[in-house]
Amino acid sequence: MTDRYDIIIVGTGAAGLFCALNLPTEANILIITKDDPENSDSFLAQGGISTLIDEADYEKYFEDTMRAGRYENDETSVEVLIKSSPAAIEDLIDLGVNFDKEGKEFDYTREAAHSSKRILHYKDATGREITGKLMQHAKKRPNITILPKTMMIDIMETDGVCSGVVAQLPDGTVAPIASRVVVWATGGIGGLFRHSTNYPHITGDAIGIAIKHGIELEDINYIQIHPTTLYTEKGGRSFLISESVRGEGAVLLNPDMERFVDELLPRDVVSAAIAEELKKFHAKHVWLSLRGMTKDYIQKRFPTIYEQCEQEGIHLPEDLIPVVPAQHYMMGGVKADIDGKTSMDNLFAVGEVSCNGVHGANRLASNSLLETLVFPKRAAHLIANEWKTIPIRETAFDANEYRDVPKLMDRYRESIQQEIEKRGGTLYAQWRDESDQH
Question: Quick one: which H or E segment has residue 391?
């Protein structure tokens, strides 16, 4: 590692990796990540990735996305997402990503709020297949350095322009790293919640830094709750029971063993329906039944879920899965345009940390992995045209400001919570508190 790079990317999920792979090979790129490179939420994505099947499907796909987002979506962003999807899938196939097939044809599935089957998948580990292949290619690029266990604790700012990051290195030291361009691909805020499908170290640090520097935010009070995560008394990260399970016919049952909701309604609607049943029955969970599927089918289509349930003593398809909603995704974030540009020059934001309005108030299932390809690629192409003309700026660095990193990070997290609540965010899952962290 050196103290200056052409481009710094923060985050090793699909958005950060795909952005890096679309940047010029002559650019000196540093990717930093807070934990191990594979520990990103992109690796956890089970269900699949949406795509436009053909031109005849465009209007339905557009309407599905808008309806799920309560028509608060930015229509231009939605159009770009959908129309760019076939090329994004071709990019993945060219990189060696596998998708399940029936014979020689792709096996498209359907998830909640989709009006047709348009979701590609690889078993129930689509995110791992996609992000793992992106990681393999990134590690082979001689111009890309991936530095794990390195936490961004601030950005450097010169005359209102982003000029690098301040990072805590693996040995605990704090160092400024200058660059022409910084790309935030840091993911969401799930680590701030007691019940979340996200990794606990993903705590919205970039959002806190944005607040500190006056960088514009958008819709950060729009926080998605996933209806079905495995209920357990063990604590820790909530294990997701993919939307695809309901898309393939699983049904939700209350404690009286009665269906109480259309399982394929948007996530916020299903989550609210479950919450109502929990309240009505004073229950800790509802049930998800896969009894309409065979054991062989479940093992083939949902091997990760099957194995996790076996570890919990749940034998599918005979046994029911206890499920409960948990925090899953942030639709808002750092305000960005369709090319990832933020309100600060030379700072880009892509993936879940960003908000260009594509999801509106509630993300349509399986549009997240697609988002991590479409807009990072656009950002990379814009950066590719400009990076050589951007100087590396000398920025004053005061080490005393970063003498107590844990206290600094706590301030960021407090500011995020305050900002979300100020904007009227309603939180189904409680904030994580000090007792949770120990």
Answer: none
φ, ψ for residue 217, nearest 5 deg: -115, 165
3-state SS, one letter per residue, for 87-153: HHHHHHHHCCCCCCEECCEECCECCCCCCCCCEECCCCCHHHHHHHHHHHHHHHCCCEEEECCCEEE
Q: CA-CA distance, 233 to 226, in Å (whole number)? A: 18
Q: Is 267 a catalytic residue?
A: yes
What DSSP state is assigned to residue 329?
Answer: E
The packing angle between helices 367-386 and 126-140, to 10°, is 20
Phi-psi region of 189 (alpha: psi -120 to 50; beta: other; left: phi over 0): alpha
Over the chain, what is the mean pLDDT? 94
Pairing of strands 347-349, 333-335: unpaired
The predicted-structure confidence for 393-422, as pLDDT tens digits, reads as follows 988 889 999 999 999 999 999 999 999 989
Backbone angles phi, psi at 352, to 5 degrees: -65, -30
DSSP state letter for 424:
T
Give the predicted TM-score (pTM) of the model.
Answer: 0.91
- DSSP E strand boundaries for 231-366: 251-253, 286-289, 321-330, 333-335, 347-349, 354-355
pLDDT, tens only, 128-142: 999 999 999 999 999
Over residues 190-205, the pLDDT tens digits come to: 999 888 999 999 999 9
Spot the catalytic one: 110, 180, 246, 267.
Answer: 267
